[in-house]
Amino acid sequence: MSLARRGILALVAGCLARGAAAQGSPADTVGRASIPCNGQRVVAVVINPGRPPFSGNAQRWRALARSFGLHHATTDASVLEPFLLLQPGDVCNEQRRSDSERMLRDLPFIARASILVLPDSDGVELEVNTIDEIPALGSVAFRGLGPRALSLGSDNIGGEGVRLLAGAERGYAYRTGFRAAFASYAAFGMPLTTEIDAARDPIGSHVEADATHPFLTNFQRGAWNAIYRMEDVYPRFRRSTGDDLGLEIKQQRWSAGAVSRANVGSTVFLLGAEVVGLHADPAAAPVVITDSGFVGTTDSTLVGRYAPVHSVRAGALIGVRHVNYAPVDGLDALFARQDVMTGVQSGTLIAPGRTGSDDDLLISNSSYLGAVFGRSVMMADAESEARRTLTHGGPISIISSGRAAWYYRVGSGQLFMLDDEFSGGARTQLPIQLTLTERQADIRGFTGSNMAGAVRNVARAEYRWARPAAIHGADAGLALFTDVATLAAGSAPFGTNATVQSVGISVLGAYPTRSKRLYRVDIAYPLRGDVHRLEVRFTAGNRTNAFWREPYDVKRARLGPVPSSLFSWPVR
């Protein structure tokens, strides 16, 4: 049996713990009825942060988390205040109220949020009620039956909306790896996200820093971002012989840009500029990555295949969005509420530049479509990039990825989902080889597969049954699923044309009830492909805050950032 297990150490048992807490808290207990927000004067804003339930047997798992230094502190009101679009003295506007509620609910450390409008003799009072997610984070990865990597952290250090994570990984024949990550979601008292991520992996290393003022609501004047990443990586190239080749690439990536809002009726236009830089230096020859260390190779497939890429470009950002949000329960989490973006959103970067001695043009686009009707929810997102040399013409290099999904809520606690994720590249300047083992592609049952290509399509179907608070305060469920992945060799080194399929069953959990964080144990068996053994995989995370996260084996081949990140707008 192949084990690929990643989990939340201090919380997985708590997810299924008996005797969990009673659910009373400020966000659940309301003394007065809310009235419509319709032009009244706001005389006061009262913020009531609430902690997650910690009573009954859940106290044991709280004690376990504390033994690792993971103490919980309820979110400070000052962290929530920057996301409120209404202040004392303002005219009460329903769209501003609902947008504020949605932005609070989207914070990774907030499980539930509501903003009530309560009558007052001089106008209305806004009562902001939230319940925290359990913030403790931890993961463990195994090699065989022994632990290979461990990380611990918190999503909400000291209740300040700060995420800290630290971990280590055994290198075996290579060096021991270390990682540290920091994120603040309300830096300097603003809806500003700052992040630093640094790692010395057993093979390779990276340092990344970014600051983003995301475009969260149409009431904003604009958005901006800045990002810098330096890395020394060894992209792996799968071969049918089972021994991977690694090609060292030292690179620096950076970008900075801003957009400003203009309204035409209910349609929002975003106009701005972006500067993008890339310096990538691939090694002249690969090495074989083995369990005993690097080994030289006589395989010449990758020798001199990829030239250095040094480019700087500046361009225009043009975006349009005509969207609303529909709160829906029980899509990517068992019963948590998430805000589905409905309507159309599209943005384009047009950036001429210079790569080496060639003048070129880079065009990238991000497009999203979403709809909610009856029991159905449909969403689709595509992220594309194309480059052409202007100096002497030639073929266009293309990279694209995207996801389309249909959710159908059959009945209470029952969900049917069809999902398709596409990734591909052609004539890329940087290495691209798409595998069945890429973690973010999430193809269950194919750990250890040696197949790869330049184009990958993953289709999934899942039927889920779940019950809220089924095990003393924890949501629980079961799911049947099938994954079908298709590879096309294209121009990828050692590419192959193949279709594989797996089927399986999942055990699902969320704690406390209606938490956004979903725990899954997936048991998958391949029906066809180059792997023929049962796989058990444990995962945990919040899937409600992003509809599509591009797999790293696609992202690393891009000449610029993922297009949606240029506009700093959410895709969900």
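Next protein, fold it too.
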Amino acid sequence: MKRYVKIGSWLFFVIFILSLITCSEKLSPQPCPEQTKNVLIEDFETQTFRNWIATGDAFGQYPYLVPTQTLREWGNVGFEGNYMISSYVNGDKGTGTLTSPVFTINRKYLNFLISGGFEDVYVALIIDGEEIFREAGLKTRKMSWVSKDVSAYMGQKAQIRIIDNSTSGWGFVDADYFCLSDNPIGVIKRKSIKIEKKYLNLPVAYYIDAEQVNIFCNSNKVYEFDIRISSRPDYWVYLDCEQWYGQTIDLEISSNPLHSEANVAAAAIDLIYQSDEPAEKDLFYTEPYRPYYHYTVARAWLTDVCGIFYYNGKWHLQYQRNPFGIDWGNMHWGHAVSDDLLHWQELDNSILPDSLGPIFAGMSVIDDQNLLGLQQDAEHTIVSFYTAAGGFSNMSKGKKHTQCIAYSTDGGYNWKKYANNPVLEEVCTENRDPHVFWDNEHQQWIMVLFLLGNSYGFFQSQDLVNWQLISTYTLPGEFECPDFYKIPVTGSSEYKWVFSGVHGYYQVGQWNGRNFIPETNVKDLDFGAMTFVPRTFGNVPDCRIIQIWNTGEQFGYIPFRNQMTFPRELELRKKGDDYILYSLPVREINQLHSTEYQFGNLPVSHSVPSSACHLKVQFAVADATGKISLSMNNMLFQYDIGKQNLIIANNGSVVHDLSIALENGLLTLELLSDIGFMELFLNSGEIVGTLFQPVNMGSISININASDGNVLLNDCRIYEMKNIWRDK
């Protein structure tokens, strides 16, 4: 019986391939039967421009095309065959045109693949010397299909012109596979669904190309996202459909027919179903690689920290995320709340993309003066400022990066878009990531916005809606995601201001209401390469400065990606004439300690029967010789007392070599170890780093020793950590 099944499968495959050949010269759209042949204009597989005419230097040395290896080094994906057209040959600086021979429009649709930028770089259809339409990319190197209805020009002579008039960032255009067809290119499947339950569950695979899903309501496109959708899923994600409850939506899967499993993706439409709870909810937070006590999302991708604040006894943690896969993209704001900074409840996404663009990073503030006039009852309006990243989605194609508002009138649980968005139009290309705060001393609202290069702008407002640029500031080595806050200097009545960027580089200085005046060199909050976007919570009681970052991971293919650092409390200390930020895990961490192990003498050799622990150790050094060693499974920390430097090795390979001076003859080291990564705090938090470590699913072996007897172990405490998802 199995033999006949195999023969049948092969026959089906052969028939399918033959149907593609008979329906199209090179490529068949779906559906194929009862369709005339597609007309291939150009696929560029001859390795030359052939009889296309080039001007300028944008498209390289005529007539040869860029080889596949170079295209892939540039990051191009999704082109057909081995060659395509790219105006990136001379980088962004090249300009010029490439024009096709004349052809006759004899099919309803003109189809092609495109990627690249969208400002002054595009593909145009030319008839009688006039541009009939322009089509640009989405600031990505991933090729996307375009199908333009040209039926109004049936029988007319036309040309295709690829144009690069830009020398700025993303100043290039990629194009491939021009053909005419009777139907749009793409395997398109549609399904009408009356929304009667909260969630729509979508099947996802790891090893399949991403396709686009579009949602229409009353014939209007209201939502779109890319997803590795598959009829052979590895896991499931979910879409909150509460906004369409009681309505009928049309869900469309638009697949790229060049993808090897386009039909597998399209067939997934039959697996999509509604439910009151997300699919696989019983598996959430039980996966083998789930960190014990660092925040992770139940499913899909987590990235930049956004809009974090304290209100009415709750810590609100918002962040950029892709709800539909473990890749960057489809940027929403995710949302979680906590009573104790330890245990988190993930809520539905707070801010969703719209026609202005995907949702990039920002900040939330409390409108306790009711400036927006939106307050209901006793709850203050909470206002989230974010960047609408125009041009990074089909729905926002050709639009700019603008600054927008979403607000909550119920304490931060449900969010609406401000009716008059955007509140700040584009200042410069791709300006983004607004950080907003109330400047009490100068009685004004301030927005800090990333502009270009290493530059940020300060904007002033009295009403949260109208903003005026008042100054700029440059932070060397930094870009994106500013954080700016006032902090007391420990042991004095003095206050300073701290400015940091996406990598955690910071300067300490003064704020005079218009300008930030740095007083220190640039320093690093976290020397690890895997931490990004440090942000401080707003509206925190007791004047505490609480900060959290997002970090990467190295677990491979699992249904969630990335996590937050453990919340850290900041303290600014004056050291001589310098100011230094210290950070340590928030004191609430003590509530997660399970079994405690305490040691008073060297050597220490201990095994913790868990995959997560918290270690605190202090050494007293009596002489300037010898070495101190601490190993935790495959991670080694070795301090050379004479050289005053710390070597960190992962599986025998040195990953960091740090200069660390003893403080009054003492060396303190604190480690937060969780599955796949750890956070290191040295000298009471003066030096901090987040590190990868080999994934450990068993017990943790800890060994501590010194090469000379002049090192004393003042204190050593090891805590087995509770699991925040299971040990509540």
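About the second fold: The CA atoms of residues 356 and 505 lie 31 Å apart.
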